[in-house]
Amino acid sequence: MTDLALGKSLPADRAQLMRWLQDYGVYAGVTALLLFNVVFTENFVSGENFRTQAVQVAPVLIVALGMALAIGSEGVDLSVGSVMALATSLVSLYLGYGPWLALIAAIIGGMVCGLLSGSLIAYIGVQPIVATLALMVGCRGLANVFLPQLETVRDDTMATLGTGDILGIPYLALIAAALAALVAFTVKRTTFGRQLLAIGDSRPAAQLAGLPVRRVLIMVYVCSGALAAIAGFLATARLQASDPTSLGNLMELSAITAVVVGGTPLSGGRVRIGGTVAGAILIQLLTATLIKHDLPSSATQIAQAVVIVLAVYAARERGKQ
Question: Which pTM was predicted?
């Protein structure tokens, strides 16, 4: 009787652990990294360091918000890094007309990329990974056609935006927080958000229910493209340079990691914006920790890969229960 009870309790305990890891593991990871750095990393607890971390995480978070929408619809957007590169090229081309027109041009460029990939997915039936992979290659190539080499950006407004702050909080962090709140409201409180989750949960059922599946899918990738373009604009403002060759490289990896670790399942039907924010912070803290302890950049990529595998495994085990 005891063995039988023990045999029943072990799977239950395992399921509970996997559920806890998916729901709260990212917050535990952020807390653990913060405590580690407070104890073992020199000069970690300082206003300047926290400001630096906030500035660096902002573009990753903004891109991850769009990625969360794509993954929530049971898709993925591999083109986000290349859209950032296209955005920085457009900023350089249109900055002579003013920074806000350059921002508009960058956002329109990102939305067009999202429209193309979304149309391939919604109307032609191309798999999201294939459609966005094509855009990833094409947008990067187009960005290099528009701007073949690195170019310095000289604009007072962009310099202030990229390096300024309010009461010690960087403008970039405030913009990222505002966009996170906007996306969270969209997912939880709007018809579009509810339709997105329904499509991600079961596209055939959504079609039978009469939901505008094609329109919603296109809007998902348009939003992802626009957010990636905004991230490209802000990264350009921070760096004070347009470099389409390197800007956004491997950003899709960081964004997917933040979303998956934050508890949004790859199977779709759920979007956790709070978890995505924590996931982006986790990736930034992990990167900063490895750098501050003199580990090579390749170690960061390996660590991110391990985190993704663990997060997907936890989600898979939970799905079996």
Answer: 0.91
Distance CA 239, CA 161 (A): 11
What are residue 162's DSSP bridge partners?
A: none
State how far the Cα of 223 lies from the Cα of 203, in Å rounded to an integer.
19
Nearest CA to 69 among 133, 18, 132, 27? 132
Cβ neighbours around 306 below 10 Å, total: 10
Name the strand (E) or helix (H) holding 170.
Answer: strand 169-170
Domain residue spans of the chain: 56-320
Q: Fold for 56-320, please state it.
A: ABC transporter involved in vitamin B12 uptake, BtuC (1.10.3470)
Q: Of all helices (H) and strands (E), which one includes residue 166? A: strand 165-166
Record the tokens describing residue 23, joined without a space: 């729901």
Q: What is the pLDDT of residue 320?
A: 46
The per-residue pLDDT for range 25-40, each reduced to its tens digit, is: 889 889 999 999 999 8
CA angle, residues 21, 29, 60, in degrees to nearest 5:
105
Q: CB of 315 within 8 A of CB of 22?
A: yes
